Amino acid sequence: MSEAPSVAARPGSRNLVEVVLRLREAGVVVFLVVLGLAFGLATDRFLSVQNLTTVASSAAILAIAACAQAIVLITRNLDVSVGSMMGLVAYLTADWAATHPGITPVEVVAIPLMIGTVLGAINGLLVAYGRVPALIATLGTMSLYRGFTYIYAHGQEVTSSRLPPWMLSSVDARIGGLPILILVSIAIVAVVAWLLHAYPFGRRLYAVGSNGVAAWFFGLRAERVVFFAYVACGFLCGIAGLLYAARVGTVTVVLANGWEMSSLASAVIGGVSVSGGSGTVVGAALGAVVLATIDNGLVLLRVPEFWRMFIQGAAIVAAVAVDALIAEAIRRSTGGRRR
C-alpha cells in the first residue's frame, strides 16, 4: 500500500509555517500591550512618561544581551556565560578608564568590543571545534570569567568618581527627549536584525539550527557557523557590558550577575526557539521589554521580591511551553507525521 504524501507536499503548508512564525512576535506585542494596560489600571504611575522611559531604559541593555543570546540559540546552542562576559568586560573597561585619565572615547569603545569578541571566541572554540556540549562549556567559562574578575579586582570596586565624566554623562544624554541609551539599543537591534536578514551568514545560522546534518550535506560548515555565532554573542556582550558600566557608574565584581538567565528568558519569551532554527533578535528584544515591564509593574505594586521571581519564572515556563506547542504544530504541518 503506497504511502500518502506528507503534509509538507501540500501547497499551503509553507504559508502556514510562515504565518505561525509571524504570529509569535505579534503575540509578544499583544501580550506586552495587555500587560501595560493591566499595570496601568492597577497603578496610576505606570503609564506616566517618566515611568515608561524608565522601563525602556531598563530594557535597553537587556535587549542587547538578549540579541546576543538569540544568535546562539538559533544555532541550537546556548550561552550561560553572558552575564560573566558582561561583568568582566565592564570591570576591565572601567578599570582601564580609571587608571588612564587621558583615555579617548574611541579607546573606551574599542577595548570592550575586543575583550568581548575574544571571550566569545573562546566559547566558540570549545563548542564548535572542541565538541564540548554548549551547556557544559559555557557553564565552565561562566565560572572562569567571573572568577578571573574576582582575581583581577582583588575585591575592589571602580567608583564613578574615578571614571571620565563624559563616560557617565554620555548614557544620560537625550536626543529628541529620548535617552541616548534607548536609541543606541534600538539601533543595535535593528542593525543585527538587518544583517541576519540581508546577508548569507544569517541564513546559515537558521540552516544549521534547523538541521545541522542537512546543512552539512548542502556544503555548510556547521562548526564555522557556530563559532562565529559565539563570536557575535561575545561582541554584543562587549557592547552591553560597556553600556552597563557607564550607566551604573560604580562597577563591582558582581556586575551583571544573573543576566545569563535574564537574557535567555528574554529570548525565549520573545519567540526564539530553544530547539534552534527559528526566532528573531527583534523578538528577543521585545522579550526583554516584557521582563522589564513585569519587574517595573510589580515593584510599583510593592509586590515582594520572592513573588516577583515566581511570576517571572512562571512567564518563562509558559513561554517554553508555548514554544514546544508551536514547534510541534510546525513539525506536523511540514510532514513530521505521515499518514
UniProtKB/TrEMBL annotation:
Statement: the UniProt record of this protein carries the keyword Nucleotide-binding: no
Matching CDD domains: TM_PBP1_transp_AraH_like
Primary role: Part of the ABC transporter complex LsrABCD involved in autoinducer 2 (AI-2) import. Probably responsible for the translocation of the substrate across the membrane.
Chief site of localization: membrane
Membrane disposition: Multi-pass membrane protein
InterPro entries for the chain: ABC_transp_permease (IPR001851)
Keyword vocabulary terms for this entry: Cell inner membrane, Cell membrane, Membrane, Transmembrane, Transmembrane helix, Transport
Quaternary organization: The complex is composed of two ATP-binding proteins (LsrA), two transmembrane proteins (LsrC and LsrD) and a solute-binding protein (LsrB).
Pfam families documented for this protein: BPD_transp_2
Domain of life: Bacteria
Name of the molecule in the record: Autoinducer 2 import system permease protein LsrC
Subcellular location: Cell membrane
Keyword Magnesium set for record: no
Any one cellular-component term (Gene Ontology): plasma membrane
GO molecular function terms attached to this record: transmembrane transporter activity
Positions of transmembrane segments: 21-42, 54-75, 82-103, 109-127, 173-196, 225-246, 267-294, 306-330
